[in-house]
Please model this.
Amino acid sequence: MKYINIILIIFAIINISIDYTNARPNDKCSFKIYPGISNDGMGNILITGKPNNPKNESQVFVSGVYKIPMLGGSISRKLDINGEVLNGGSNSMSINLFYGFLPKQNLYYFRMNHAGQPVFSMLKPSSSSSELKQVFNIHNTPFVPTINGNTFIYGAYGIYKLNKLPEDVSDAQLSIQLYKDQIINGLSFDSENKSIIYMTTYQGTILKGNINCINCTKDQLELIGNDTYAQSTNDLLVFNDMIYYSYSNGIRGFPKNGKGEKIQLVSGENVNSMVQLNGKIYFSTNEGLIKSIKLPNSQSPSSPTSNQPKTIFNSSLYTKCE
Model:
């Protein structure tokens, strides 16, 4: 009996310290995170997703934007996302990628699945609506966007620039071609010089361009280097003197000047998206995890054993399906 009481006391202490939002399995609830991650400019990481209660199929949830404190803590719903049409046949419309949030413009961008076809879409919440709006049809297009302020750069069959944020299908007509014929799988502005962009390709090349190079040929892009893992880039960002790209087995870093060593920042994680904030990369995985890792000092990169990712949210432990 003495040992049983000790065990009960220990369990009670552990139970008191648990944050049930992030740390208690719940067989009545699940949470699907859509690929994509951003931040709200107020110290929170933003993700999109939808809860599901497998034991109560009549309980229907709409997708939403959720916020998680940078340092970890309870997840909370920020915004309902209206406009999805599920099981609608040729009219079906569902989220399959969250491109990001622009705090100053209060604007969200998504990739939607419209009856099997990808559509670049936006959501601009107001007091009366938070409904998705289709912007560009990107069917059969290797579409990769990046944004700085009101400058919108995107890859398709070439690299293009819009001097405004797209909010209507007609905005595509305002596109200015920067580099002809270049197809890419990752794209980002430089973190310091906003006239410079970096990109990765399906051939594993890492390229540098300038957003003021109008109607240039793709051979006017500067070759920074090559990396086999860049062939499968699914997100890219630039911070200080490094280019970081995520792929199905982690995050790699490549020097902007093409000199020095590549680094394997994260290994063994199926990373689908990432965002840089306050010297850390926050990333989302296909396993439903949101993690962070401190960016290394460029003069003395951290070894994999001294800089391990920290989990700040685990979707499998979500409990708010009440």
